[in-house]
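User: Let's play a game. I give you a shape written as tokens, and you guess the letters that built it. Ready? Here's round one.
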């Protein structure tokens, strides 16, 4: 079990959450209306892939590469890939009630909800940018804490991150 706190002010931002180990799997999604949540309430997972902004041009432009989970992004006519942080902490959006929408509307771009492509879009009540919410109608619904902007009550979590990252690198 672990809770996650704001790295700036120390406020606890989640209830006690259980680590869901293994690969992050996203439920099948029909593509209409808000997508299903990737993580059940009460759990968290570590996403070993780079997540969110900034974005860099993709080497392979032919295969419609995804910049975000389930979502391609084109900048100046070029498909881009995430160069954001690895090992973001993925939780159910309803397990972080104290977070507020980012005060800049440009961060909240999306159709039915923020798509998360414009950088962190949720802030701690103290104002610190701590998380990115994906909750649009054409992708999965998940909240990613930036691992560099929150701290964990559980020492094992950073170790789990390193193990997952190592396994991911071996696969490539
Ligand atoms: Zn804070």
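Assistant: Ready! My guess for every position:
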């Amino acid at each position: 079990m672990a809770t996650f706190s704001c790295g700036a002010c120390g406020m606890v931002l989640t209830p006690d959450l259980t680590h869901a180990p293994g690969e992050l799997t996203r439920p099948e999604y029909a593509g209409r209306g808000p997508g299903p949540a990737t993580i059940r309430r009460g759990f968290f997972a570590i996403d070993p892939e780079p997540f969110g902004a900034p974005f860099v041009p993709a080497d392979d432009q032919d295969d419609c590469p995804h910049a975000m989970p389930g979502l391609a992004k084109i900048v100046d006519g070029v498909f881009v890939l995430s160069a954001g942080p690895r090992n973001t902490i993925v939780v159910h959006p309803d397990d972080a009630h104290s977070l507020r929408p980012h005060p800049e509307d440009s961060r909240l771009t999306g159709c039915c909800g923020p798509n998360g492509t414009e950088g962190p879009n949720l802030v701690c009540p103290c104002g610190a940018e701590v998380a990115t919410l994906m909750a649009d109608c054409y992708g999965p619904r998940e909240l990613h804490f930036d691992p560099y902007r929150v701290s964990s009550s559980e020492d094992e979590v950073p170790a789990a991150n390193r193990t997952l990252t190592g396994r991911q690198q071996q696969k490539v």
